[in-house]
Amino acid sequence: MSWLLKQAEDILNRVDQQTNAALHQHTSELPKKQNQIEFISDTPSFTPTKSLDQPIISTNRPTIIIPTRRTKKTDETDLINYLNSSTPINNNEIKQLIPVQSSSNNKTRTNSCSSSNLNDNSSLVISTNESYINNSNKQLIDTLQNEIQTLKHDKNQYENELHTYKRQLIQYQHQIAESDALLRDLHSRESDSNEILSTKDSQVALLRIRLTESDELLQKKILQYDELHNEYTHLIQDSSHIQSASFDALQLRKIQLEQELERNLNENERLNNENEQLIEQLKLIEKRLNDEHLQFYEQQQQTKHAKNLINQLEYEMNEYKSKAQRILQTKDKLIIKLKDIIQHQNSTSNIGDQHG
């Protein structure tokens, strides 16, 4: 794009130089003609010496003296300066220089031509210059229109890419919003699971305390049972002739103690089962909490990746915006220059019509 802009600027500069040179040549020829006419009107009695090459002119018309050496010198110096310049020489510019050189040679040969012939030659030179300028302007306008079409195509392409990036940005924003909602949900679940875990820990601690208390109570009961059983055996051994009533009472007491022991054993077994169930529930909760932690970490990584992608897309979108703005600025500049060229072409055509 920068190369195309440089080429367009070079073309515009060349066209400006050519139009300025043509206008300068046209304006410099007009005062020369006026000075020649004034010089002729001031010196009507001057008659030059006749040479062999000069045609015989009637004495009724005043003769015209043209400073041939000066014009020839200026044309030669202009040609030398143009050839020594660093600008590349086009075939059209060489064709433009050749008529100027030939016109200067014709001026040196036709020193005694009439004012009507000089006006015809000047109008011919002006018409050729105008036709060349018109052709060059048309070519420049065609090239500029082609470049404007390419710039419009590039602009449309960049706008389409910008719309696609905007849609991607909206999609990533929706994904980030969903991931944020999921993160909030995971945070709430984590807090709930932590509360449940704390309550379960407190329940497990209470159950452990109860279990220790029941174990202590069971040990006491076992000791009491052993003592009573020992006492019973001693009583049986020592007093075999004890009354049946006391024996029945001791037997009943033994049965009661055995039943109470069985109840305590059942209670202890039930507490052990509850403790195992609570331990399994605690393990499951810990496993689920670890899984949720892993999901939370994965969601954090996904959100970081999505944010990095969004930053990259924003940077690329800013670059495409700056490129589109530069393209629009160059388009506006080219349109303004094209309008100036068209106005200048119209003004030069109006000047040519006035002189014609």
From TrEMBL:
Q: Which InterPro entries match?
A: Golgin_subfamily_A_member_5
Q: Which residues form a coiled coil?
A: 134-175, 247-330
The domain of life is Eukaryota
Question: Is Protease one of the keywords UniProt gives this record?
Answer: no
Membrane topology, as annotated: Single-pass type IV membrane protein
Which compartments is it annotated to reside in? Golgi apparatus membrane
Q: GO:BP terms for this protein? A: Golgi organization; retrograde transport, vesicle recycling within Golgi
User: Which keywords, in A-to-Z order, does the entry hold?
Assistant: Coiled coil, Golgi apparatus, Membrane, Transmembrane, Transmembrane helix
Which Gene Ontology cellular component terms are annotated? Golgi cisterna; Golgi membrane
Name the chain's protein: Golgin-84
Organism of provenance? Rotaria sordida
